[in-house]
Structure formats: C-alpha cells, structure tokens
Amino acid sequence: MEVLPELYAIFQGEVATVTEYGAFIKIPGCRKQGLVHKTHMSSCRVDKPSEIVDVGDKVWVKLIGKEMKDDKLKLSLSMKVVNQGTGKDLDPNNVSLDQDERKKRTFRDYTGQKVTLEAVLNTVCKKCGCKGHFAKECFVQPGGTKYSLIPEEEEEEVAAAGHERDKKTSLADDSSKKRKK
Asked: Where along the sequence do coiled-coil regions lie (predicted)?
C-alpha cells in the first residue's frame, strides 16, 4: 500500500487538474491526488481557481483532512496556510483550520421557524398608551410627543371615513348651536 503523508504534513505537489471548485494536486511518492478547495487556495476570496493555479504548477500544500467515502480515501489540502515561496507553515497550531471547521458546524437552518410580529404589534404600551411596543422599549418622556404605528391602507380608509363623519356631525352641531342663539 502507498505511504500517504500524515495529517497536517506540508509538502510540495504538482497541480494535476483545475476545476471550477478547486484544484487536484498530485501527492509526491504515491498515485493519490488531493483537492484544494477554492476556499483553501488563498486567504482572499477566490471565484475562479484557474486564475490562481495552472496545470503543472508546483504548489506548497498542507494535508488538512482524510475522509473515507464510498470506499475511497478523499484527501483535503490547503494552500492558504502555507507560504507559497518557502513552504513555511503559516498556521502551526491549526487555529485557522479549527475556526473554519467551527464556521461550517455552527450553521443552523431556521427557515422552518416563522417569526411573526403580530404579538408585539397587538400590544399597548403601559407608559404612553400607544400600540406596537412595550414600556421598556418606549422612548416617550413625560409630557413628550406620543408616537404610534403607521396604519395600514384599510385602516386609513376607515379612519378617513370616520373623520369625515365626525366633521359632518361637528358642522351640524355648530349650525344647530347658531340657530339656537
């Protein structure tokens, strides 16, 4: 069986193929190849791996992962943690690799949980009496201006119709007062 480098070993390999998601590197001393994903090519964002490496280039890589999948050994490599000029390890304690792993693991899909604002929108502030917020979120100072939510279009039409009715009744009241005098 072929001797593979140990995990976190640094070596110089030759680029075998370049794809849209990374580059496959020939591992010296064996027939295996490892993948440098485009996220591990540089500390900067890489959109096209072909802009970074070409087939036949010699690059310094660090073996960052070994995985058995479908009875095949898949090797993950990284170029961004190795100085490409000298081959020196830029991440000797594998801190940035651990951070990258944590970023992958902490993602959670919250799309199934729906957030509704109705419960908050139907509240009335105990401090100012306005709808849509709680007293602890209220910015009203004693004797200050009161603010409320902007009404929906339907509410505006209902309020406008009610306002028109109020005007008509107040005008009728005014005219009746004038007649009485």
From this structure: none
Q: Which of 5, 141, 132 has its CA nearest to residue 75?
A: 5
Distances in whole angstroms, Cα of residue 41 to Cα of each of 25, 87, 130, 136: 12, 14, 55, 49
Within 13 Å, how many C-alpha atoms sit on residue 84's CB side? 13
> Considering the domain boundaries, does residue 163 fall inside one?
no
Residue 13 is part of which domain span?
A: 9-92
- Mind listing the pLDDT tens digit for each residue in 65-98? 999 888 888 999 999 999 999 999 998 888 888 8
Q: Please give the model's pTM, rounded to 2 decimal places.
A: 0.55
Give the tens place of pLDDT for each residue, 156-170. 666 666 656 565 555
CATH no. for residue 44?
2.40.50.140
Instruction: Give Cα separations from 112 to 86, 109, 120, 145 (angstroms).
Output: 49, 7, 21, 40
Question: Which residue bears the tokens 């004797």?
Answer: 143
Q: Is residue 24 part of a domain?
A: yes
54 lies in some domain:
yes
Contact status, residue 60 vs residue 32, Cβ threshold 8 Å: no
